[in-house]
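Researcher: Let's walk through a ligand-bound prediction step by step. First, I give you the protein sequence. Second, the SMILES string for flavin-adenine dinucleotide. Third, you return the three-dimensional complex as structure tokens. Ready?
Model: Ready.
Researcher: Here are steps one and two:
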Amino acid sequence: MTIFKGLEDIVQKDFPLGPMTTFGVGGKARYFVRPRTEDQLRETIERCGKKKLDIHAIGRGSNVLVRDEGVKGAVIQLDTKAFGRITIEEDLLRVGAAAPLPKVVAEAARHSLSGVECLVGIPGTAGGGVRMNAGGAYGDIGQTVERIKVMDAHGETFYREREDLAFGYRTSNVSARFILEVELRLLPDSVSAINKRMKKIWIAKKNSQPTSAATAGCAFKNPRGLAAGLLIEQAGLKGTAVGGAAVSRKHANFIVVRDKKKTKAADVLALIELVRKAVKDRFDVYLELEIEVWP
Ligand SMILES: Cc1cc2nc3c(=O)[nH]c(=O)nc-3n(C[C@H](O)[C@H](O)[C@H](O)COP(=O)(O)OP(=O)(O)OC[C@H]3O[C@@H](n4cnc5c(N)ncnc54)[C@H](O)[C@@H]3O)c2cc1C
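Model: Step three, the predicted complex:
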């Protein structure tokens, strides 16, 4: 580990990534680094750069499938305690990138601030949420972002303001390596009205999605004007399985891992291809992935 000399307490070699993702399957990271300060993160990025090691930022791993071969470079996860603080100034929520979205939602509600109820039931972090523009039918995080603090591939930190940020359907134009902090501009509202909206969204999700299964949320993006889940269901694929991976019977756009120990990432990938082929053959529609496959 000479490359990380002096940083041994935050680096682990050949680290299993499955448990770091909500799917719970997949291979190892050659290096897994959990920086506790910006300096440690900068140092890690610089050393990886010198050795030409690929870098992957991971939040809660709730939108990622890691291949069984694993990741040759370094997977970096900001330490939750150090990078997960939430502070509130009037209607501005300043959130560390490692803060879990459920905590962001709860803190906003507790302080009578509305705008992030749409994130109810999304298990990611603020950083991953902004990168992916997490959200859905009720809105997305991008609508509330005022500015973000980022670190680029050279270890430089700077702010990006709302004017130069663009958010689309599960995408953003944030290209910097790391989001460090996110500022969300919210709207004052009564706690009871906010809680009512959150409850409505939660019930709708619980009724229609396999919320407690090992998944990474929706596997595919909705093609323009169509619902991926409906296409998959109409292709007769609910319950279809490859190894321990199956198309959820509750919501056909969710792939669930039934038994993490007996399931390979390759099973999930094979199921993805099976679904794609069936939907293409039946409806002539190519389904684009919403989840990311690493590497
Ligand atoms: C049960 C369930 C329900 C879900 N429901 C929804 C939903 O309704 N709507 C929705 O949009 N998504 C949903 N998801 C998917 C997922 O939770 C979101 O995409 C979430 O935003 C991912 O956040 P994360 O921290 O887990 O990111 P990860 O999965 O760890 O990473 C996702 C991407 O973000 C990047 N990233 C992570 N952290 C950082 C950082 N600090 N700086 C820069 N880049 C970073 C990663 O490199 C990767 O490219 C669901 C997932 C599950 C398991």
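Researcher: And what stands out?
Model: The first strand starts at residue 11 and ends at 16. Residues 265-283 form the longest helix (19 residues).
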